[in-house]
Amino acid sequence: MRTEDVLAAIATGLWRWDNASGTVTLDGEAARLLGLPAEPVVLPEAAARARFHPVDWNEINGIVNLAVAEGTLAEARLRIMDEDGRVLRTVRSRSKPLENRTADGRVDYELIGTIQEIAEPQPGTTAAHTPITGDWRRSREAFLLDAGRALAEARSTAEVLRVAASLSMPGFSPDGLAVFGMEGDQLSVIGHHGHAPGDEGPFSDMALDTDYPAAEVVRTGRAIYLPTPEDYKRRFPVTWPLAQPFDRASWAFLPLIVAGRTMGAWMAAFKHPVTFSPDERSVLTTVARMLAQALQRAGVAESERELTTGLQRSMMPQLGPEIPGMTIAARYVPTGGGLQVGGDWYDVIPLPSGRFALVIGDVQGHDVRAAGLMGQLRIAVRAYASEGHRPDAVLSRASRFLAGLCSAPAPDEAPGTASGPGPGADADADFGSPRFATCLYVECDPRTGTLEFARAGHPDPVVRMADGTVLMRPTAGGLPLGIVPDTDYPTTRFALEPGETLMLCTDGLIETGGHDLDTGWARLRAILESDAHDRAAPGEGGRAGGDTDNHLERLADLLVQAVHGPSSHHTTGPLADRREDDIAVVLLCRESPSCGCGTPTEHLVRPARRTMLTVAQAEPSRIAGARRQVRELLHDWADAEQVDSAVLMVSEMVTNVLVHTDGDALLVAEAVGEPGARRLRVEVADASDELPHKRHPGEMASSGRGVLLMEMLADAWGVDPRGEGKSIWFELYEQAKPDGDEDREAPGPAD
Question: Where in 457-544 does DSSP place strands (E)?
Answer without folding.
Answer: 462-464, 470-472, 477-478, 491-495, 501-505
